Amino acid sequence: MEKEEREKWLLAGKVGREIRELGVSLCKPGAKILDIAEAIEKRTFEMGARPSFPPNISINQIAAHYTPKFGDNLELKDNDIVKIDVGASVDGYLSDTAASVSVGNSDNPLITAARDALDSVAKLIRPGMAVSEISAVIEDTITKAGFSPIVNLGGHGIGRYSLHEGEFISNSRNNAGVYLRKEGVVAVEPFATTGGGYVIDSSEIQILSLIEGKNVRSALGREILKYIAEEYHELPFAKRWIITRFGRLAELELKNLTAIGALNEFNVLKERDNGMVAQFEHSFLFDDGNVVVTTL
Ligand code: CO
Q: Is the pLDDT of residue 214 over 90?
């Protein structure tokens, strides 16, 4: 790998770690999740990076894909299980990392199970290895602690401006015959739950991404689409960001743009049995046979 490329992956990881830890430190009773998200975004830009996707701040039964909505008033309460899932982009080189906290508590067994699963993977991950070996370690660590892995969420390959590509790294035992890439970046993200271990779409959508440019009749719609392509490429973005930039009318335009197939929606994902959910995630760089946890 070229030195310049390696340095961008590493910086994206460093910023990812920093904003994850900032988010975790702000998870206090009474904290507004919108303030936490904005602090994360501010720090990302201060460090010379951009978000690789909107900060996901998902609480309790919500597993993923919640980012604060425009004007969100939601505050954290004692005992909330909060997942901070964030990432940074440096010239399209991305990181993706997550941690969980129990608000007002030092720790919690569900959180420990998810963290232990990721730590176990970090000890054995190697370029080109069978994904099934990683999946087995994740499932075994979580089930031994008395919880279930979420089977329809998992890790993934990462490419330039491409958050999910290539290998899917399942959180449950399988013999899919899939191998990790030998060179490049993958994210591993164990999810543990007190429920059955399956997430479903809720009707709420706060995150979108560009599919492709389309001919749009409205001037505002055209302007928004151009902005999205320039600012985010095909990476996920928050509805809130567009409303902040273009005003409340933009919300309707985003609906129109989705209806014509220009935008993709990420539904907020909740555990089907309303189980509590904890998650940890790191990005791993494989470079010339070596493994670097970029977000450690
Ligand atoms: Co991820």
A: no
